[in-house]
Amino acid sequence: MLTIEKKSVRAGKFVDTKHVDTIIRNYKQERWAANSEKLGKEDSLSVWYSIEELEDFLQKAKDHGADGCRMFFGVYGQDYEVAEYRGRQTMVMVATKQRTTAEGIENKNVYTQTNNGTSILAYNRGSLCPPYCGKPGQESDFDELGITIVERKDGGLAIV
After folding, report:
1. Minimal CA–CA distance to 68: which of 118, 123, 9, 12?
2. Same domain, 124 and 50
3. Residue span of the structural domain in which 73 resides
4. Any residues with CB less than 8 A from the CB of 148 and at least 6 apart, and which?
5. How many domains in the chain?
6. Is residue 6 part of a domain?
7. Of 93, 105, 99, 85, nearest to 42 (Cα)?
8. What is the mean pLDDT of each run of 10 residues along the chain (160 residues)?
9. Any residues with CB less than 8 A from the CB of 21 and at least 6 apart, and which?
10. Distance CA 149, CA 12 (A)
11. In a designed cystine with 84, which of 38, 51, 70, 131 is the match (CB 3.0 to 4.6 A)?
12. Using one digit for the tens of pLDDT, what is the confidence trace for 137-153?
């Protein structure tokens, strides 16, 4: 009997609270403040998906031969159907399949056949924070990450 060993494809690792706090604080200072000022309202800082949604997407990706997922940053257009999301950044997950070529390793997007033709296998439209960071009067997970003092272009300070 021939046994085929499946090679594990890994790119990330588990990180601790300090790492998370540091990269979020860096993001708030180096990108988020300018994005929010340009947008004229607080830009989103996170996108939330349920475990069930993620499992469904990952299972569908596996069913179509994917072995990975690329996450793209994006921005909803000013005419997007959900008014609170307009202009805010988001994240879209795209199923990928890794392959080795003469040039090196590639992660190619996975496409599927739909009733409307060929389409990329992707998932988007999670719950953005802001604007949806928890119920009023309740602490959200966003608050648990601590605060960051951001210097604004007008010389003022903002606590985020």
Report:
1. 9
2. yes
3. 46-129
4. 24, 25, 28, 29, 159, 160
5. 2
6. no
7. 85
8. 64 92 93 93 95 97 96 97 96 96 92 95 96 65 56 63
9. 145, 146
10. 29
11. 131
12. 444 444 455 556 666 66
Instruction: Report the C-alpha gap between 52 and 55 in whole angstroms.
Output: 5
Residue 9 lies in a domain: no
Residue 47: its pLDDT value, please? 96
Please state the length of the chain.
160
Q: Rounded CA gap, 42 and 160, in Å?
A: 10
Tokens 């924070």, residue? Answer: 129
Q: Rounded distance, CA 96 to CA 71, Å?
A: 10
In the structure encoding, which two tokens stand for residue 50, read together? 């349920």
Query: Within a domain: residue 10?
Result: no
Coil, strand or helix at 129: strand
Same domain (yes/no): 82, 31: no
